[in-house]
Amino acid sequence: MLKTNIEWLKKNMGPDLKIWTQMIKEIDWGEVKRKTKLSMQRDKERVVGEFKSFMAMSPAEKMDIVMNGDIHLGWLYKKDAIAFSRREWKGLKSVGIDFTGWLKTWAGMINMVMKDPFSIALAVFEYHWFASYLGTPVAIDRSNLGRRGQLLKSDIQMWGAITHWAEWQIQTQIRADARLGGDEKLSKRVVLFDEMTMAQMMAGFPNLISMPYQMIPVFMSSELDQLALIPFIDAVEQYGLPGDACPLPVAECGCAIMDEYPILGMGFIASSMPCDGSTMASSFQDRRFGKYLPYYPLCFPVRYDDEDTIECAAADMKECIKWVEGLSGEKWDWDNYFKTMDIMNECTRIELEKWEMNSTPYPQMVGSSYELFRKWNYEMDGGLFPEGIAVQRKLRDTMYKTYEKRLPAYRGGYAKHRALIWGQPAHFYANFSNWLANSWGIYILAEMEALNYTKMLNTTDKEEAIRDLCRLYERMVMRRHTNGGHDHVLGELWRQLKAFNADIAILYQHVSCKTMAGLMGLFDDQARENNVHLIWVEHDLMDPRTISRKDMRARVSNYMVNVMHAEPVDPTLIEFDDEASW
Amino acid sequence: MKDLKHLIYFENLLDEANNELCQQAKAEGMHPIGYTCYHMPEVVLNVDNCFSVRLRAPKTGTFDIASYYMSNYTCEYCRALVERAIEGGYNFLDAIAGVDACAEMNRCMENIEILAVPDMPEKKMFVTHCDIPYKVTDYTLKHYVVQIRNRFLNVLAETYGVDTSDKALRKAVKEHNEVCDIITEIGEMRKMDNPPITGYEFHVLCLVTYCCPKAKILPYLKETLKEIKKRKPDPQPWYRARVAIVGSEIDDLDMTRMVEQAGAFIVSDRFCFGSTPGRARIELNDEEDVLTQICAHYLKTTQCPRYMSQEKIQERRDFSDYLAKEYKAEGIIYEAMKFCDFWAFERTLVSHIMNEEYGWPVLSIDRPYMARTSGQLRTRLQAFVESLEIKQIQKAAKEG
After folding, report:
1. Cα separations (Å) of B118 from A523, B110, B114, B357, B376?
2. Do residue B341 and residue A236 have CB atoms under 8 angstroms apart?
3. Do residues A484 and A302 make contact, with C-beta atoms less than 8 angstroms apart?
4. Average pLDDT over residues B119-148
């Protein structure tokens, strides 16, 4: 590895130093001084405001703040800052949990770096997306706003599983990267697959390492840092792609154009899922990866309800398995596959229990951390990553305990409104559900992307197991709803609202998603027929320049004020500036 | 050149979906079947007493209602069809044979199914959604055949008692091939330096074969072929440059008219509603199942960018290059319907590749469904023709 490190340094040290020197020379120190002064002024105003507010409270209210923490979360945001102005005060009862979680996050990150410090240090300079991962602790804090006690602990556990998996992915990719770490032996054990495919197939190859190729540079970095993907999006649009294409495949293509994927692996499994844009991104990526990676297009039928489509799906899955066997020399291991799918089935059972609980007046597993965890657990963990099931079991134990105590899921109190999120959530605003709960008391009981395949996967019959695996893949996150006919997303919304006893649908209008856009009018028509409050919230998935976080909040606030005539739970969260933040 | 005898008649036929020949056929008891995509094998829609009508929305102005239902950033072709369906423009149809090949077209079909079909006069009217593969293998072909059989042909037989036997399919293929042979023969003439047909006229001829009952249009086509064979071109070629068009669907005559008004002769039409591969003969043998052979033809010849295997990706580029060379084009126009995801990605990438690796001058355009509304497009076409002319001058100076 050291040899590759030195090669990288020889190649890049000179030009990089020149760039850094130039950048330092170009700094306008007068402007820096002015901004620092302004920032300090804002801090001063906030501190004075918070102090006055606290002093104006009754002794009981003061005690409540000391014991249970902040109630004015809007004060945490500072204009033009990338992080919060301070940590949220979670109250004496929860501060230990919060601080321990924070320490553990940093410990995980340091542990990752220590696996190969030199290569990882070089990665910071080689890959511009890498720096976004420094925002991980802030992203966790953002997702836990308003959460307290055992539920806060659950959130931290969920994030723990996701970040540990991501750290493993990052350090493996960097160590195996021919540009940086250069561990060829490790690289030859890696099978890359499209991030819009699921991981479960690789349970049959326990000696290989499966990696969703674009997940770390593209998908996850955009969840942590709202501005992370702008260079990728701009690169493709400058290349000629119209601005109306979905930023997810666009950013994947941009990452390829800018040559920001680590070079590793024995082969790449491309996928037609979940949508047309994603299918087409494969031709851009093939142009980049095709130079050094064999490629298998794994394609599933779209009309997945028709059982006469399953044989085609199963045939392709078998071909793909054969392809991996041929490439790696490994044999598909049925025992390991069945064992892993048993774990997956247990996760599904726990998930069903959460949904059942969330349909009661006392929902517990709600919020941004849970939403992200569910997607990760279903799609990327799939029973393969040991921490996934361990956390699932802890969540189940916690939720029954907190349910018995009838605890509200957020600091602001019980749900004022019960809602579902429908449509694709904005990556650049991954904690929107928490904002809904903390600002207006709108509890998100479930989101569309969480409500996926719940049939127990066959773990005894080999033929049926392959068919079940295909059925699962066909119902991957987002594809489950947006493909295969309008009823999966349109009719399903009305059914799920009823099942969760919800009366509001927060309908994300991802402006570049053609599959959802094609049903806009029907959603409106049928919402009126079903007497449902439908709140459209536009966004552009990974590009906050089209519609900002502030604009998204305004859509909800306008509806709550003008239609619902509601009062906010936390008025400081109605108007604040976070356009520059992570 | 002297005008073609039936050109105005053909243009009039293209003025509305339910044209004179469709009305005649319907009055004779035939079943009009609407469709939009190459992946619904046209020939199976012409089985027995049915005839295919590839859906267009001629003379579309605005599509406000469709935009309400599908937003203003979905494919304009799809929205135009929804608007026309809501207006009642497809009320003459007995079925719509849809495919789930692209999400936007699928949503278009679903909107039509929910919003327009209940008001259509034919109460047995149905809309199908066949699943289409993303790559070509033996099992995807089998899948394709099952889909066409189960989702379309069986429903057609059950609903209207249509004969969908091998014999009936063979008859439909025979008639289809007759049309294809005529169009191909006329199309070949575009290879000439001074051809007896323009790209616009060819587009008109091609479109009527997609939008009219085959049996009804055949006599006119035969007569037109004879006429073109004898047609005397002007002493000097009328065009300033020869171009091939590659891209998404073009059913708008104003688009081809605009290209040729800019001085570019369209020598090759590799777009949906074009002749390559849409007017290629279907060769049948006596051994294999007929429907399988038909489906194999469509699967092998399709040039849709949704096919994501490496050999298909390469084949599309090579085929465009082949057509441009074969028809002596000087440049290629890569076009995509606004908001079409498949062609937006394909056009962007391949327009670079065709220029940088194959050496073709390329114009890459994003266009509206109705080209007449775009002055910017006209300017870009004119500039492209001028750039090709400059290349001609530079080439001549170098050679001579």
Report:
1. 18, 12, 7, 52, 40
2. no
3. yes
4. 96
Tens digit of pLDDT for each residue in A434-453?
999 999 999 999 999 999 99
Establish if A59 touches chain B: CB-CB under 8 angstroms. Answer: no
Q: Tell me the one-letter amino acid at B386.
A: E
Pairing of strands A295-298, B126-131: unpaired
A456 touching chain B per CB within 8 A: no
Phi, psi angle pair for A67, to nearest 5°: -80, -40
**Cα–Cα distance, A526 to B226 (Å, whole number):** 56
Q: Which residue of A lies nearest to B349 if distances are taken between CA atoms?
A: A284
Q: Chain B interface, mutation test: which of A273, A295, A302, most B Cβ atoms within 10 Å?
A: A302
pLDDT tens column, B8-43: 999 999 999 999 999 999 999 999 999 999 999 999
Please indicate if any CB of chain B lies within 8 Å of the CB of A34: no
> Which of A239, A308, A485 has its CB closest to that of B129?
A485
The residue assigned the tokens 């323009």 is B198
The one-letter code for the residue type at B153 is: L
- Full strand arrangement of the beta sheet holding A417-422: A442-447, A417-422, A504-510, A533-539
Q: What is the pLDDT of residue B399?
A: 84
A145 alpha carbon, distance to own chain's centre: 16
Closest residue in chain A to residue B113, using alpha carbons only: A486
| Residue whose pair of structure tokens reads 């033809």 in the numeric block | B297
| Backbone φ, ψ for residue B286 (5° rounding) | -90, -5
Model confidence at A1: pLDDT above 80: no
Beta bridge partners of A266: none
> DSSP of A439-503, one letter per residue?
HH-EEEEEEGGG----SPPPSS-HHHHHHHHHHHHHT-TTHHHHSS-GGGTHHHHHHHHHHTT--
Is residue B24 less than 8 Å (CB to CB) from chain A?
no
Confidence band, pLDDT 50/70/90 cuts, at residue B374: confident
The ipTM is 0.95
Residue percentage of chain A with pLDDT more than 70:
100
Q: What is the pLDDT of residue A181?
A: 87
